[in-house]
């Protein structure tokens, strides 16, 4: 349908800002934010303290600050790439896992695992969450194909309504079984409790993000439709299933370890598209860096805005991301006139 057609490709060299900022400079900015993250927090910690060789300072640095910073970077990279993959598959710039029911489905899976298998290890709960996330994302794509969409802005609205229904059902059962407080810990992303031994699952999402980069061109072709994909010699169903699994696994792992981080997968790919164009191979590394940098900046802001208290990063990302989301919607609506 015409409303689901991707944005016309424009050469990257037509975008001035993207040419003026090399990739290594963006990487340097992310590295600088990561260094700042290592030394921001309630516990007094500075490079001078580390050089002094204090054992307690080094323990705080290695057990808490380094794992937290690595977790933020890994989650930011993976969520940005996952959002981009979903946009390629849905052929719409305004979808991402938190606006199509993927995150809500993963949360419902964790709730089911907690009710039925309370003693199950984290990996088992992650697997159940991933299965629910796959089902939720597949349901959204199925609904999308059967609705006569006349405007691209309706696509995220359909996804938000679907996610709202799933979230409402999940909240009802959490209330019935007195698990509302537990549910809230999964619905709001928070890195404050991550220490060494509790973040390592996030390395899996880094591997999945690399797989997404390798297969990005295939997802672009699959988004053109089954007939077009088959004519080019690709297995449409296998490619779509791979995308569903990648997006669902990434979000399941992040929800289990950190909690929900909404809008990141929507905002970052759109900002990168505005800066450097729509070349998929060139865009993915930028999306990874922008995702890591954006989440690092939000996490640092959450630690300093009410110091010595901490605002969960999910709240900061929700506020900033929703404002940018509305700006993108208004900009698209104005451009369509």
Number of strands: 0
Helix content: over 70%
Instruction: Indicate the CATH architecture.
Output: Orthogonal Bundle
Q: Give the full name of the CATH homologous superfamily.
A: ABC transporter involved in vitamin B12 uptake, BtuC
How many individual helices? 15
Decide which structural class fits the backbone. mainly alpha
What would you note in describing this structure?
- With 337 residues, the chain is mainly alpha-helical.
- It has a single domain (60-335), classed as ABC transporter involved in vitamin B12 uptake, BtuC (Orthogonal Bundle), CATH 1.10.3470.10.
- 72% of the residues lie in helices and 0% in strands.
- The protein has 15 helices and no strands.
- It has helices spanning 16-20, 23-38, 47-52, 55-90, 102-116, 122-146, 154-176, 180-187, 202-214, 216-222, 226-231, 236-257, 264-276, 280-304, 313-335.
- Helix 13 (264-276) crosses helix 14 (280-304).
- The longest helix is centred in the N-terminal third of the chain and has 36 residues, at 55-90.
- It starts with 15 loop residues before the first helix and ends with a helix.
């Amino acid at each position: 349908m015409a409303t689901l057609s991707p944005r016309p490709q424009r050469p990257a060299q037509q975008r001035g800002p993207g040419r003026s900022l090399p990739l290594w400079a963006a990487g340097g900015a992310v590295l600088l934010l990561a260094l700042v993250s290592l030394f921001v927090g309630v516990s007094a910690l500075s490079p001078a303290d580390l050089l002094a060789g204090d054992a307690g300072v080094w323990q705080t640095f290695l057990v808490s600050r380094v794992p937290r910073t690595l977790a933020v970077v890994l989650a930011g990279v993976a969520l940005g790439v996952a959002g981009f993959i979903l946009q390629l598959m849905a052929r719409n710039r305004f979808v991402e896992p938190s606006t199509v029911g993927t995150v809500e489905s993963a949360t419902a899976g964790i709730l089911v695992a907690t009710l039925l298998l309370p003693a199950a290890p984290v990996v088992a709960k992650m697997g159940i969450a991933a299965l629910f996330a796959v089902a939720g994302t597949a349901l959204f794509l199925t609904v999308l194909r059967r609705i006569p969409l006349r405007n691209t802005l309706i696509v995220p609205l359909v996804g938000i309504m679907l996610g709202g229904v799933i979230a409402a059902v999940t909240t009802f059962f959490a209330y019935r079984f007195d698990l509302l407080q537990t549910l809230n810990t999964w619905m709001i992303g928070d890195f404050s409790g991550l220490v060494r031994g509790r973040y390592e699952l996030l390395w899996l999402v880094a591997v999945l993000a690399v797989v997404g980069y390798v297969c990005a061109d295939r997802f672009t072709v699959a988004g053109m439709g089954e007939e077009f994909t088959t004519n080019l010699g690709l297995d449409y169903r296998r490619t779509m299933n791979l995308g569903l699994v990648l997006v669902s696994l990434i979000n399941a792992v992040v929800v289990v370890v950190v909690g929900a981080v909404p809008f990141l997968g929507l905002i970052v790919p759109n900002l990168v598209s505005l800066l450097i164009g729509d070349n998929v191979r060139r865009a993915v590394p930028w999306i990874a860096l922008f995702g890591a940098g954006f989440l690092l900046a939000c996490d640092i802001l959450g630690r300093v805005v009410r110091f010595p208290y901490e605002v969960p990063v999910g709240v900061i990302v929700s506020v900033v991301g929703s404002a940018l989301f509305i700006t993108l919607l208004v900009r698209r609506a104005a451009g369509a006139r």
